[in-house]
Amino acid sequence: MTDRELIEAAYADLAVLREATDAIHRTVALLDAGEIRVAEKINGDWVVNAWVKEAIMLYFRITEVRTMGAGPFEYHDKIPTKTGLHEAGIRVVPPGTVRYGAFCEPGVVVMPGYVNIGAYVGSGTMVDTWATVGSCAQIGRDVHLSGGVGIGGVLEPAGARPVIIEDGAFIGSRSIVVEGVVVEAGAVLGANTTLSASIPIIDVTGDEPVEIRGRVPANAVVVPGARAKEFPAGTYHLQAPLLIGYRSETTDKKTSLNDALRTFAVEI
Question: Is the pTM of this model over 0.90?
């Protein structure tokens, strides 16, 4: 049987978990090396490799909590921190942490933030102070995750899409992106924007509002917003981020970003 078949069999029936142990370890090692991914873009669509997520969940079952050191820091956990950062061309500032089973391309900078198992982070991306990249999240190249950003982890169900932040996106301070939302290439989220699969994004750039759920269009500029909703106890306002415009198409992405922030007065 292939490693995939062994993992799928063990996930369906824990009675055969022992037979899949080596396959699980090999799969997590491949994740750590960036040779496989939890999700990948194929012909323009994001495809989830559910069996890889199953391997991660089974990995927690076959590992034991132990005390481990990382320089002056001590941890007590099942999964060690990532090693070989210098060789990989990754900068991690203490006490920033990249967990084993996550992959960062060369040129990634992790300030005192956190990158969890199964995550993939593209080159040139900044994971700023206290930003978190949840389990299995897929972060593109040249992305900026500002201070305190929370990128949610999506492990279960195995077939569920993880949070995906595509190339060149800018995520403003204290923003939260969860439940498999896709932020497409070049999009900008203003500070404190919260996105989930159930929260509507309202495009207010036209004559009539248009609702979008589960994704932020490429180059869109989205800021926090709210809309009124009637309840038995009265009228209250719920989160409803507003799509207020788009970044200009330009080869100079930094200029495009600065222009968008200035034009739409976006707080970051």
Answer: yes
